[in-house]
Automatic annotation (TrEMBL):
This is NadR/Ttd14 AAA domain-containing protein. Residues 2-163 form the NadR/Ttd14 AAA domain.
Length: 179
C-alpha cells in the first residue's frame, strides 16, 4: 500500500512513520519534501513563504509519481495546501490552479493517515513555535481531509493516542496482505 502520514507540524508524524517502518519492514519511507529539498540545497526563507510551500507542494506531487508499491510518505500534497490556505499571504495562492494536479496525485495513494493536534497536546512546543499557525493548519487539514471540502476523494484514517496506539490503528486498517 501507498500510505501518507499527514498533519501540522509537531504532532508526531515522523514518530508514527518510524513506528510503522518498524512494524512494516518491507515498506520504504520517503522523507518530507522540506528535508529532501533542504538536503539538495534549496534555500528556504526563515518564515516560509507562499513560494516555499508551493515548491514543497510540487515536490510532494512528484514524490507520489515515483517509488515502490509499499511506501510510507512523510506528508502529502494536502499538507501543503493546508499550510498555504492558513498562510498570512494565502491570497497569493491560487488553489484552483493546483487542484487538478493534487487530485491526480492523491489517486496514487491508498490511504492518508491524519495525525491531528490532541488535547492535552502530546508534543511540547518551543517558544519559537507558532501555535496559532499550527492550530490553523490543523483546522484546514481537517476541512480538506475529513470534511472533503474540495472533493479530494481520498481514504483518510484519523489516528490518536500514543505512537504505538496510532501505529496499531493504522495496522488494523490495512488489509492483511499489506502487512
Amino acid at each position: 500500500m501507498r500510505i501518507a502520514v499527514s498533519g501540522t507540524h509537531r504532532v508526531g508524524k515522523s514518530t508514527l512513520i518510524d513506528e510503522l517502518a518498524d512494524l512494516l519492514p518491507t515498506y520504504v519511507t520517503v522523507d518530507e519534501p522540506y528535508h529532501q529539498m533542504e538536503e539538495e540545497g534549496y534555500a528556504f526563507t526563515e518564515t516560509p513563504s507562499v513560494e516555499d510551500f508551493e515548491e514543497q507542494l510540487a515536490r510532494s506531487i512528484a514524490n507520489l509519481d515515483e517509488g515502490p508499491r509499499d511506501v510510507l510518505f512523510d506528508r502529502c500534497p494536502v499538507d501543503f495546501i493546508g499550510y498555504l490556505l492558513a498562510h498570512e499571504d494565502h491570497d497569493a495562492f491560487d488553489l484552483d490552479v493546483w487542484l487538478p494536479r493534487v487530485r491526480s496525485a492523491l489517486q496514487k495513494l491508498d490511504l492518508i493517515v491524519l495525525v491531528g493536534i490532541e488535547r492535552p497536546d502530546r508534543i511540547a512546543l518551543s517558544a519559537s513555535d507558532d501555535d496559532a499557525q499550527r492550530l490553523a493548519v490543523d483546522e484546514k487539514l481537517k476541512e480538506l481531509l475529513l470534511d472533503d471540502a474540495y472533493a479530494l476523494e481520498v481514504e483518510v484514517l484519523e489516528v490518536e493516542g500514543s505512537p504505538r496506539a496510532r501505529a496499531k490503528q493504522v495496522l488494523e486498517h490495512l488489509p492483511d496482505a499489506s502487512r
